[in-house]
Design goal:
By secondary structure, this protein is α/β, with parallel strands linked by helices. Helices cover about 45% and strands about 15% of the residues. The chain has 18 helices and 13 strands. Strand 1 (about 25) and strand 2 (about 30-35) form a beta hairpin. It is elongated.
Length: about 450
């Protein structure tokens, strides 16, 4: 009689449109099946199979991974990339990518398991053991009710993600404590160099200078506020709705002797009333706003700026959907990483900012930079794995490992992007206050054109 791995591989390949299994399987009985040399998916017990049968698709896989019912031997990036080829294919006629295969395959396996009279279903049920859906791992967010993006619900969602612990984030992010895409002027540089370059790029785009007033929306642990005050002489207010972030940000300001020039508040952007500001930065925060509230978000920030003031909106974007269906957030991300987070296309973001009153002056895609940043964070996580397990739960560390590695591949494969949008509130007379060339407002040497011949 064949082993469990061989039986599972044979059943799986029935649903993979004739394509071979991309990963090797090792089951709890020690049997293996699949291509030699490929990363090995380790099913540690019957519970792993039950998770996939009761919740086929991303969420079932994620729950098995987080709980430790499913493990991996080999390179996680390679394993996820191989799975990605099942999740996406390119339509030859339209040239567009569509989701397919793996979730459909798992759903098909699950459907086979339900009718007991089917031979394949009986085999799967026998392999999975006692029927019944397993409980989700404790790291999963509880069921959320009520309207999206109320002050209370947003506060709970932010707490789930950012209040994992400052010690945890300090090991993953490194000394910069910046939790957004870095700017890699040199791929051989360090993460700290790249994060400092990103903070400086934002300050230059906002044309910060001594005496100007900056509002940093979603200030995190205060790194941009510190940089802007120390290097550009501004007076700054940083707001966050994470108590843990605010506590550390205030401590860092105090240690730098900057409490007379900067303030950190636990405050939602909708509650800020003390404008006008000369500049507003929003870095990695707008993903939490929600599609239905984004225009109101833009109008709120517009109202807080003086005429001629600038907004730098740094935001992850999604690719446009390729069918008539509504875009849906990945279940794993929603349940374990960013509850209630929503991604929009860059076109939608620009359009909504314009309808909020802004003139959009510049859009810079830095997609490849985020892939490098995430790989650096994963390296930090792997290096400090034992300490991270002590600061939180091993399941939580597995969540962060999976989401960061998968996100790095998503940026590399152009499934998601990230953009810096520079917008301005013009004066009543239409004056933007912007220099005519990008080089001037970035503080770069002017371009010297060659004489025409």
């Amino acid at each position: 009689m064949s082993g469990i791995a061989e039986r599972l591989a044979a059943l799986a390949e029935q649903t993979l449109e004739g394509r071979p299994l991309p990963l090797r399987i090792r089951a709890w009985d020690g049997s293996e099946a699949g291509p030699e040399g490929a990363p090995v998916v380790v099913l540690t017990g019957r519970q792993s199979l039950r998770r996939l049968l009761w919740k086929p698709g991303h969420l079932g896989l994620a729950r098995a991974w987080v709980a430790g019912d499913l493990d991996l031997e080999g390179d996680l990036y390679e394993a996820l990339d191989r799975l990605g080829h099942l999740l996406w294919h390119r339509d030859d006629q339209a040239g567009r990518r569509r989701r397919q295969s793996l979730p459909a395959a798992l759903r098909a396996l699950s459907a086979l398991a339900r009718p007991r009279q089917l031979r394949a279903g009986a085999q799967l049920l026998a392999l999975a053991g006692p029927a019944g859906p397993p409980k989700p791992p404790p790291e999963e967010t509880p069921t959320r009710r009520g309207p999206l993006h109320t002050l209370r619900r947003d506060s709970e969602a932010i707490s789930h993600h950012y209040d994992v612990g400052n010690d945890f984030y300090s090991l993953v992010l490194g000394p910069s404590m910046v939790y957004s895409c870095a700017y890699w002027e040199d791929e051989a540089g360090t993460l700290e160099d790249a994060q400092r370059a990103k903070l400086d790029l934002i300050c230059r785009k906002l044309q910060l200078r001594p005496g100007r007033r900056l509002l940093d929306v979603g200030c995190g642990w205060g790194s941009l506020v510190l940089h802007a005050v120390e290097e550009y002489g501004v007076r700054a207010v940083g707001i966050t709705i994470s108590e843990e972030q605010a506590g550390l940000a205030r401590k860092r300001l105090a240690e730098a002797g900057l409490t007379d020039r900067a303030e950190i508040r636990v405050q939602d952007y909708r509650e800020v009333t003390d404008g006008p500001y000369d500049a507003i930065s929003s870095v990695g925060m707008a993903e939490h706003v929600g599609a239905t509230r984004f225009r109101a978000y833009g109008e709120q920030l517009y109202g807080l700026l003086r005429p001629g003031g600038r907004l730098l909106n740094h935001q992850i974007s999604r690719r446009p959907t390729t069918d008539a269906g509504r875009y849906r957030t990945d279940e794993f991300i929603d349940r374990y990483v960013f509850p209630d987070g929503e991604l929009e296309t860059i076109g939608s973001t620009v359009g909504l900012l314009e309808r909020s009153g802004f003139e959009v002056r510049d859009v810079e895609s830095i997609r490849e930079h985020y892939a490098l940043t995430l790989r650096a964070w994963v390296t930090n996580l792997q290096r400090h794995r034992a300490a991270l397990d002590a600061f939180t739960t091993p399941g939580r560390v597995r969540v962060w490992h999976l989401y960061m590695a998968a996100s790095a591949l998503a940026f590399e494969r152009n499934r998601i992007g990230v953009n810096q949008v520079l917008a301005v509130r013009t004066t009543d007379g239409g004056d933007s206050g912007m220099p005519r060339t990008r080089a001037r407002w970035l503080g770069l040497p002017p371009h010297r054109a060659r004489p025409a011949h």
